[in-house]
Amino acid sequence: MKYIENFLTLGFASVTPSGLNFKNQYYTNAKMIKHGWFELAEKEEGWQIPILYYSNDLSRIMLIDMDSIKNAFPIEDISQKMDPKMRELYFSAIASLKVQLRHNRNK
Fold first, then answer.
1. Would the pTM count as exceeding 0.70?
2. What is the C-alpha separation between 51 and 44, in angstroms, rounded?
3. DSSP alpha helix (H) spans, 1-107
4. Contact, 74 vs 27, CB < 8 A?
């Protein structure tokens, strides 16, 4: 019988504006979104965090917190499958919404 490695490994992932980058895959979870990690990474040029992962299964990675471990899951990159004109309109709309949100916060 073939031996299959299935143990947790410690690694480091980079927080970027596009998501948590680990081994050329982007991940996210509710905590990262709630705390605005990706927006902050855009302003501060990102940072690295320690993670745990199964060496043979990158369908999730685990963020180490002081009192818990939170899972993060891959983000599907649908922008590569999207029509270029639609992608441009989508990102333009998102940029416009961000400007409106900043304006409303500064009132």
1. no
2. 20
3. 30-34, 37-44, 84-105
4. yes
Residue 2 burial (CB count, 10 A)? 3
CB atoms < 10 A from the CB of 6, how many?
9
Terminal Cα distance for the chain, rounded: 66
> What residue has token string 């979104």?
33
Judgement on whether residues 53 and 84 belong to the same structural domain of the protein: no
Q: Helix (H, G, I), strand (E, B), or coil: what is residue 57?
A: strand
Higher pLDDT among residues 53 and 84, named by residue: 53
- In the predicted model, is pLDDT for residue 30 greater than 80? yes
Q: Which residues fall within 8 angstroms of residue 78, CB to CB, at 6 or more apart?
A: none
pLDDT in tens, 56-101: 889 999 998 777 788 888 877 555 566 777 767 766 777 788 888 8
Is the same domain home to 89 and 37?
Answer: no
Question: 26 with 60, same domain?
Answer: yes
Which 8-state DSSP code applies to residue 79? G
